[in-house]
Each structure stands twice: as structure tokens, then as C-alpha cells.
């Protein structure tokens, strides 16, 4: 019995040592992986200098703006010209299918559309023409408010853009993100008679990963 039990302890200790070593090894491995990932991320940010693309609405052209007094609807058709800038040196931007744009007046949508799908290379500025169209219920209260706004020459319009975007590094696809932009515009008037002048614009944007 004594002879058998004595060699058991070193055996058990060895086993314990084995598990400990294995854990150490795993920890080291994980640390190395984490260091590599952190290094890759830091490398990415230092060498690629990813910068947020910027957007601004440079022009609007209204071709239809018709009230229908019979069913109290407003039919609107317009084209917004958006200046999209990709300031990145290495990252291309693919504007994917599934975008949505809306123009609304005091919370009531006037018209909607979508962005063209296209690939924007690095250091590129592209003027996008977004056609939007819609017929929406527009009560007499809103109609009066709009007339007031027109008279004052300050028509507030909200433009919302949501677009899925695929970032590309050379030919590698990076993550697909969703870009949301809200432009709060004030135009002097909205009618097909004369092109609206954009008096002010403020932009807010965020990115969903
Ligand atoms: C920017 O990209 C667009 C779309 O790919 C292209 O048509 C245009 O020629 C590019 N502009 C410049 C200056 O490279």
C-alpha cells in the first residue's frame, strides 16, 4: 500500500502541473491573439486614416408641387443634388442597394426616393442626383402653415437619408455599415416656379455597425 501510494503524489502533482501549464499556454495564446488584433486595429487606424465621408445638399429643383383640394393631398416631385465626398486615401465606399431618402415638412413626409447604387473611389467627390416623388395627405392646417412659411421666405425642410455602405480596402470588403444623415434645411420657397434657394443647412449623421 505504502509503495503504491507514494508514487501517486508526484503523479498527481505532475498532472496538476500539466493543467497549469496548459492554462498558461492558453492565456499566452489569447494574449498574443489580443495583441495581434489590437496591433491590426492600431495599424489600420494609423495607416488608413479612416475619415468619415461628408455630405451636403447643394441644390434642389422642384418640378411638381400640387395641392389637391378634393382629397387634401400634396403631390411633390423634386431632385436634390447631394455632394458626397470620400476623403479617404485608401478606403473606397460602395453605396449599396436598400437606401431610403425622405423629405418632410414639419413632420409630414412630402416625397421619398433612394440613392443610386455606385462605388466611390478614394479621394473622390461625386454629385449625386436624388429624385424623390410622393403624394401625401396634407391637411388644411399644414397648408396654411406652409403658406405662412412661403410668405416669410423660410420653409423648413427635413431631409433624411439612410444608406447601407460597404467599405472597401483595395479589393477587400470591410464591414458593411449603415449611414444615417439628417439635413435640416431652410429654403426660401418650395414651388416649381423658381428654384428654391437653400438659406441654411445643418447636418447630423451617425453610423450603425
Ligand atoms: C468620382 O467617382 C465617380 C463615380 O465612380 C466618377 O464618375 C468620377 O469620375 C470620379 N471623379 C474623379 C475626380 O475621379
Automatic annotation (TrEMBL):
It comes from the Eukaryota. Pfam families: LEA_2 (PF03168). Keywords: Membrane, Transmembrane, Transmembrane helix. The keyword Transmembrane applies. It is a single-pass membrane protein. The chain crosses the membrane at residues 21-46. One of its GO terms (cellular component) is membrane. Its main location: membrane. It is found in: Membrane. Residues 81-181 form the Late embryogenesis abundant protein LEA-2 subgroup domain. This is Predicted protein.
